[in-house]
Amino acid sequence: MRYRGLVIRPPSEADSYILQVTYGCSHNACTFCPTYKGTRFQARPLEEVREDIAAAGRLMPLTRRVFLADGNALCLPAGRLARILSWLRDAFPRLERAGIYANGRDINEKTRDELRQLAALGLGIVYLGLESGDDEVLRRVRKADGSEEMVQAVVKARECGLRTSVIVLLGLAGKEGSLRHARLSAEAVSRMKPDYLSALTLMVVPGTPLYAQQEKGDFTLPDQRELLQELREFIRCCRVEGCVFRTNHASNYLPLKGILSRDRERLLRCIDEGIQRPQVLRPEYMRGL
Ligand code: SF4
C-alpha cells in the first residue's frame, strides 16, 4: 500500500482503508483550499491500484469500509471506477461500502445508469463540499460548481441509490456576508435533503489565495462569536428530516451531533451556551484542518 502526497478523508472514514485512485483534485482552484496545491492532478495507474488492493486484501481481509482518495475521485470515468470497485469486492468479502469525494459536475456528467451501476458495485456514499449556498461566494472562492449544480448533483446521487454527505464551510463569506451565507446554504441543503450534513469552520491557511486577500484587507474572517451565530442561523433555517448533522471536524469550535430537524432546538441551545460561555469551546490551539 503506497501513498503519495497529502492524503485526506472525512472524519467518518477514520477507520476505513484509504485507497488512492487519483492524485490531487481535478479542479484545484478553490482560493481557500491548501490541500493539493503543488500536486498535478492525475489518475493513478490502474495496475498500481490493483496491486495495492491485492496487498491490502492479504493484510486486512476483514476490511468493511474503503475510502477512495484523493480530492474528487468520482471524476474518474465510471468504467474505471467500476473495475476498481469489483477488485475491492473480490479482495474484501466483508466489504460494506466504499466512499468517495465528488464535485457536483462529477455526478452531473455521469448517466443515471452509470451511477446506479457504481452503487450496485458497492459505492455507498459520496461526500460533496457545497461550502456555501450563496453563488456570489462560490464565484469569489472559485468553487467548481454553483449551488444549483450542487443541488442537482445531490438529488441525482440520492435517486441513483447513493448516500450523500454534504459539507458547508462556516466563515467562507467573511464578516459581511455571514448570515446571508448561512441562510442560502440552509436553503440549498433543504433542497438537497442529504443523508448526512456537516459544518466545518474556515481556517485561512498561509500560501492560499484567500490568505493573500486577507493580508491585503480584502477578506475578514468572522470572529468566534460571529461564526457560532452563523452556525446557529444555518441550523435554524435548515429544513431537512432524518439528516444526521455533525460538527465533529477539528476545525470547529463546538462539536455537535444530532438529527435534523428533530434535534434542532437542542442544537440551538448548545450553540447559545457556546456563545454565552466561550470557555466550553475548543481552544484555538486545538483546532486543525
Ligand atoms: S474542489 Fe475540494 S479539493 Fe479541490 S480545490 Fe476545491 S476544496 Fe480543494
How would you characterize the overall build of this protein?
The radius of gyration is 19 Å and the shape is globular. It is an alpha/beta fold and about 290 residues long. Helix 1 packs parallel to helix 2, helix 2 packs parallel to helix 4 and helix 7 runs parallel beside helix 9. The chain contains ten helices and ten strands. The protein has a single domain, classed as TIM Barrel. The strands form two sheets. An eight-stranded mixed sheet has the order 1-4-5-6-7-8-9-10. Helix content is about 40%, strand content about 15%. The longest helix is centred in the middle third of the chain and has 15 residues. Helix 2 links the parallel strand 4 and strand 5. The structure holds iron/sulfur cluster. The site of iron/sulfur cluster (SF4) has 13 residues, from loops. The site of iron/sulfur cluster has 13 residues, from loops.
Largest sheet: 8 strands, mixed
Question: For the residues shown, what is the average pLDDT?
Answer: 97
Q: What's the helical proportion of residues?
A: 25-40%
Please report which band the strand proportion falls in: under 5%, 5-15%, 15-25%, 25-35%, 35-45% or over 45%: 15-25%
As a whole number of angstroms, the C-alpha radius of gyration is 19 Å
CATH superfamily: Aldolase class I
Write down the CATH topology.
Answer: TIM Barrel
Total strand segments: 10
What distinguishing features does this structure have?
eight-stranded mixed beta sheet, two-stranded antiparallel sheet, 289 residues, 10 helices, alpha/beta, TIM Barrel
Summarize the structure.
The chain is 38% helix and 17% strand. With 289 residues, the protein is α/β, with parallel strands linked by helices. Residues 25, 27-30, 33, 35-36, 71-72, 103, 129, 144 line the site of iron/sulfur cluster.
